[in-house]
C-alpha cells in the first residue's frame, strides 16, 4: 500500500512538472491571455545590457553614474506598464510613417524614439507652446516652412513635422558633432547645449552636468528604444491584433476655400470628427485659403468607419 502511494505521488509530481513546463512554454493566445494577465504579475530588478547606444554612439555604462541613471529610466518605463503598452500600440501605427522620412534625410532611425518621449506619439501641447508629435515651437516651424496660424497649423501634420525635425537635427549634428548632442539639443536648444559644453570644458553629453529634464533626456530615449525593441524581455505581452493600425487613406487636392468642413466630409461619407482625426492640422471648421494654396486632405478609404 505504501509503495502504491509513493508511486501515485511520483506520478502526480511528474504531472505537475509537466504542467509547469507547458505553462512556461505557452505563448499568449486568446484562450489563456486573460489568465496570464491576472496571474503573471511580478516585479524584478532589471539587468542593464552590457552595450547600449544611440544612433551607433555608445553609452558609457561602466561609469557608475551613467549606469544608475540608465537603470532608473529602464525601471520607470518598464513598470509604468499602461504607458508602455500604449507606446507599443501607437508605434505600430506611426513608426511606418516616420521611419522612411528619417531614412530619406539620412537621420538615424533611433530618432523615432525621440518622438516617443517628446509626445507619447500624440498631438501634444506643451506649456511652452510646442505642438504635435515632434513638439515643434511656432518660430522653428515657420523658419522651416510650416504654415502656422489659427486656420492651419502644420505642426500637427505628421509627415511635414517629421521633415522639419529632420532638418533641425541635421543642423544640430553639424554644429555639435554627434547625434547624441543633436538629440539633447532638440530638448535644450543648440545654443544652450553649446554653451554648457563650453562652460564645463567637455565635448560629450555624458560628461555634462545638466538640469533634470535635459539630464534625463538621452537616458529616456535609450530606455524606450531598448524596451520597444525587446518587449518580451521586459515583460510586455501582446498580440498583433492588440496594436493600433493605420487606416488607409487617399488624398483629395483642394486649392480653394472650404466654407464648411462638415458638408465637405459628408461628400465622402464621413463626418467632421473623422475628417479631423485624419487631418489634425486643419484647426478650424473651414479653410480660408485666400492665396489658393494647394492642400492635400486625407480621406479614409470606405469600410473603416461603419
UniProtKB/TrEMBL annotation:
One Pfam family hit: SLT
Transglycosylase SLT domain: residues covered: 100-204
Keywords: Signal
Signal sequence bounds: 1-23
Gene3D superfamilies, per database record: 1.10.530.10
Coiled-coil stretches: none
Family: Belongs to the transglycosylase Slt family.
Protein name: Murein transglycosylase
Amino acid at each position: 500500500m505504501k509503495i502504491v502511494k509513493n508511486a501515485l505521488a511520483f506520478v502526480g509530481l511528474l504531472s505537475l512538472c509537466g504542467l509547469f513546463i507547458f505553462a512556461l512554454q505557452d505563448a499568449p493566445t486568446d484562450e489563456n491571455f486573460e489568465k496570464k494577465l491576472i496571474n503573471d504579475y511580478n516585479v524584478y530588478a532589471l539587468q542593464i545590457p552590457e552595450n547600449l547606444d544611440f544612433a551607433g554612439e555608445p553609452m558609457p555604462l561602466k561609469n557608475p553614474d551613467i549606469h544608475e541613471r540608465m537603470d532608473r529610466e529602464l525601471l520607470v518605463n518598464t513598470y509604468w506598464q499602461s504607458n508602455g503598452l500604449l507606446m507599443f500600440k501607437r508605434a505600430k501605427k506611426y513608426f511606418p510613417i516616420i521611419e522612411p522620412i528619417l531614412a530619406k534625410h539620412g537621420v538615424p532611425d533611433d530618432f523615432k524614439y525621440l518622438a516617443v518621449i517628446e509626445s507619447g506619439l500624440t498631438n501634444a501641447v506643451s506649456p511652452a507652446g510646442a505642438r504635435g508629435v515632434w513638439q515643434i515651437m511656432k518660430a522653428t516651424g515657420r523658419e522651416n516652412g510650416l504654415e502656422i496660424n489659427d486656420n492651419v497649423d502644420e505642426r500637427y501634420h505628421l509627415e511635414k513635422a517629421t521633415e522639419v525635425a529632420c532638418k533641425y537635427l541635421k543642423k544640430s549634428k553639424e554644429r555639435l558633432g554627434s547625434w547624441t548632442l543633436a538629440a539633447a539639443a532638440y530638448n535644450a536648444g543648440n545654443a544652450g547645449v553649446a554653451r554648457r559644453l563650453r562652460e564645463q570644458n567637455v565635448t560629450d553629453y555624458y560628461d555634462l552636468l545638466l538640469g533634470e529634464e535635459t539630464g534625463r533626456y538621452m537616458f529616456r530615449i535609450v530606455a524606450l528604444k531598448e524596451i520597444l525593441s525587446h518587449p518580451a524581455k521586459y515583460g510586455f505581452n501582446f498580440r498583433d491584433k492588440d496594436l493600433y493600425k493605420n487606416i488607409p487613406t487617399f488624398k483629395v487636392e483642394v486649392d480653394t476655400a472650404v466654407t464648411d468642413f462638415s458638408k465637405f466630409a459628408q461628400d465622402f461619407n464621413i463626418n467632421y470628427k473623422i475628417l479631423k482625426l485624419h487631418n489634425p492640422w486643419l484647426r478650424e471648421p473651414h479653410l480660408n485659403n485666400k492665396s489658393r494654396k494647394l492642400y492635400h486632405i486625407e480621406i479614409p478609404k470606405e469600410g473603416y468607419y461603419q
